[in-house]
Fold this sequence. Notes:
mainly beta
Amino acid sequence: MSAQPEHAPPPGRIVAYEHPELAGVLLCPEHSQEYPGSVPLAPGDLPDGGYCSHGTPDGHVCARAFPMKKRTSR
């Protein structure tokens, strides 16, 4: 997930952001604003879903859940 997607998702499809310097660290749209250069992600970029990793000095972690890519039945 550390590479930027080839095509950024349309604004309505963005569900999470990847931290611009820490590979694999996901952020919710609210907390991504604190990190310029965050990479926008759509559900298809998160095959297993994920959680916002933003933390505060007092130990609180956002942990907002991100939807995973919809799996199709065969």
